[in-house]
Amino acid sequence: MNANASMIVNAYAKSIVND
């Protein structure tokens, strides 16, 4: 996985946690 995809997935996971 490249850095951009990792960053996007990480942001998505954070949004799930924050919901």
TrEMBL record:
Tree of life domain: Eukaryota
Biological source species: Rotaria magnacalcarata
Protein name as catalogued: Uncharacterized protein
